[in-house]
Structure formats: structure tokens, C-alpha cells
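Re: Re: C-alpha cell formats

Sure, here are both.
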Amino acid sequence: MSAIRWPCWNTVDGVPAQLCATEAADLLATVHSGLRGTDATSTHAVFDYLTDDSVDFAAAPAIRPVLHRIVDDVRDCPDLTWGTCYGDGPEAIRTGDGQIAHIDWGGVLHAPLLWDVADWMDGYTDPDQQRFVDACRRGIAEIGADEFAHLDKLRRLRDARTLRFAAYRVLRADHYRTTAERDLERFRWYAARLGIQLR
């Protein structure tokens, strides 16, 4: 049974929060149930972030058209359920009695709820990745089963946000000196993943 790859520095009784695929799916179902009914429009809007052409970033002429196409692809999916998403990879702690709790809510955003599934699934490789997706399909009541047909588009949307974030930091490497090497590596990796040729 593989555990999720994202490191969690928070521990309780010295025990890191290592989540197997089904535990992560159960946690995400709990998160979405708790977020139901919140005012999603008051959170960060992912489409606005990706299509705001007033902000400059590295390799913008090559990247901007791809970001817009990816956003348009998701906009063309009318059956997606929108709402408040956790917006980031899982950050969990396991208490001394074995309970799992979710922490770090700094990435909350307004997006299709499938966003979180697309984000969390990349912490696994098959067969655990498929186990996670199947468990989410069964357990997250807020997302219709038919919506999972758009999962690849949501993964590209998530990749686009990560690329946009890294590209902004690469252009301002003098300001982000402590993470400049990691930002550049992430920038190149996600550009290649989205099929963008960088000069």
C-alpha cells in the first residue's frame, strides 16, 4: 500500500500523517462535505488567475495561449459542479488515537470540485491512483459520477496553475532567491508536461 508522496511536517505523538489511497479519498469527501454551502465566490477564482494578462511572468508569449486554451476546455464542460475547493495537496495529521485531521487552509479557491481530485491523485501511482479515484467517485456526494470523465482536463488546469505560479517566481528570481532553483525546475517540468516549447 503506497502512501501519498507530499511530505507533511506536522506530527502528533511523533507519527507523520501517511495516507493510503482510500484514507485520502475519505478525507477529501469529509472536506467537501464540510465546505458545502460556503460562499465560493469570496475565494480565489482559478480562471481569473490563469487569464489575467496584466501580470507578467517568464516565457509569457509561449505560455499565455496555452493557459487560455486550457481554461476554455474546462469552460466547455457545462456539467461540472463548481464550489469551494481545498485547492492544494493534502495536509493532514494523524492523532494519537488514529484519527485523521486536515490542516493548512491557505489554498482555498473557487473551481470545479473535481479540481481537488485531480490535484490529490497525482500523489499516487497506479494501482493506488486508480483506487483513489474510484473511492472519490463512490464517496464524494458533491461530485456527480459523470463529471469524472473530465478528470484529465482538470489535471491540465491544475498543471496550468502550477506552471503560472512557477513562471511568475522565475521572472522574479532575485526576490525568491531561496527557492529559485526549485522554481526553475518546476517551471521547466510543468511546461514540458503541457507540451510548451521553451527557448
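Second one below.
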Amino acid sequence: MGHELTPRHGGALAAQEVVKRLGAEFQYVRVDEEEGLARARAMAAWLRRMSAKPFLGREQEALRQAIMLENLHRGEALVIEFGDTAETARKLTLLPENPIQFSYQGEEDERAASQLVRRCARALDCDVERF
């Protein structure tokens, strides 16, 4: 279980706009472009390795996404750590055409993250939905 941020108006924000808004909301924000690209490439490799069955007839869409992820440049895929302090910070992975999601290590972790997730959603003008 976890939460997904869904934009209230229009589509997803550009990566640099997400960084700007989180920087306005939180005192601690760290951006890692290299880790973002590594995660994008890992997701692309996973999509290519998967058999067609899990995609339920949407294999071409998955292949298109893999190609898009493989061709990203610095600044287009980010890992962003944010919070009021480094000790209370959470990480999110920002990939084009993918929702921002938060996963938890149990109910206590979810409770500890809930205020940061809500503030993140407010800063990015998103609704918070369970997945």
C-alpha cells in the first residue's frame, strides 16, 4: 500500500517546477540527477525484460515508455529528498509520464510520513490517493 499524487489541474509539472515548489515548502531539499537517471534506466530495463503477459495487451505502450526512459537527459529524471530536516526527510522519484508515489514500511512509517506527503501534495497542487 501507498499513496499516489494526482495533479488537480492539467498534467504533471515539469521537473524543475517540482523542485522549485518543494523548495518553497520545505527547508531541506536535495536533488540527485544521477540517481534519477539510474532509476529511469533500471525501470526501462525492467520493462524490456518483462514478458508480455503482465502488460495485458499494452506491450507497445510499455516498450514506448522504456524507450522514453532510456533517452532521458540530466534533469529530466530526479530523486528528490525533502522535509523540514534531513532526519525527517522522505525521497521521491520523479520520472516523466509516471505518477509520484510513496510506499511505506508499515502503518507506523505511513503515519510518520503522512504530514510530509500532504504538504508535498499541497505544494504540487495534487490530490493524495491510495494505491
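The helical segments are 15-25, 33-49, 59-70, 107-123. The two ends are 6 Å apart (CA to CA).
- S.
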